[in-house]
Amino acid sequence: MVETRPLLTIAIPTYNRSKELGLLLSVLAPQLTNHPEIELYISDNASPDGTPALVQRFQAEGLVVRYHRHSENIGSDANFVSCYQAARGKYFWLFGDDDIILLGTIDNLLSHITRGDFDIIYATSYGFRDDYLAERMGDPLGRRFHTITNARRVARVINIMFTFISGIIVNKERLDEIPHEDPSVFLKTNLVQLSWVLPLLLHHRQSLVMWDRPIAGRQGAAGGYSVGSVFGEKLTYMLVQCLQGRPDLVRIITNFTLRRWFPSTIDDIRSSGNQNLRLEEAETILRSCYGNNFRYWLFTWPVIKLPLPLAHLWFKGGVLVSKALYMVLIPNFWKKEI
After folding, report:
1. What is the per-residue pLDDT for 273?
2. What pTM was computed for the model?
3. Are 12 and 87 in contact (CB under 8 A)?
């Protein structure tokens, strides 16, 4: 008997976050009822907490899940790759163990992928710190979904959020048909997920944006890496390697990152006093990577160097500029559905 390929694999790499994983599964499990076309896969990176018992409890309650536990911690990038390699679905969704897939999202997603064929699906998100329901935010323009056939427009809409694993679903079946590097080539970049996203942008046909913010992304959990190294040296390397022949796409993502993402991230780091992302290293590295781009000096550098109150005002001014450019560069961005 030939096994039917799942339509979608939701793969959750996890390490030592049984409490957060339990919340995610409690919201996700009822959405998977009566959906045998969806494969749920959990890759436990040798968690020392109660993760195995947690998964067993959900299995006993009827959740169908493939659970794999590594014998030792192989690192986050390698765990991501192991999820990608183990996934059997046409579509592959790598999802963070501390984020939430809101109720109704799975049915909404299936309504699209059963009727159309997409290279990339971008599920927009909102940030939360304590209560994902109390802090819920929808799309301010009331948009529902956009279907996009232009790669440049996809790059402008998703931009640096290509790096956010919980917001990106890829067509693995399509990826198998186009040239791309083996993801293991990019281990220890902290951005290995781009190895299966950017080739689909390079060979783009059609993508979907789900605008109603169906993903709640937990804030304040990032740390343990240098923001300058990962989003300077390594991001630049990944973009150039995976988008060869399309410097225009590289520029779109890079320019947004300098104009909007770095100032926002640096403002948050400075305001919170969070030292986990090693901001003190960032200025030297970012200048070496982006110093020939005027956007670094206009938008990012002042937020690093100015006194905090002035840096915050500078950041806010940059947000207004970025929003204005968004309206100019993305026609019909305000439409509810396209």
Report:
1. 73
2. 0.95
3. no
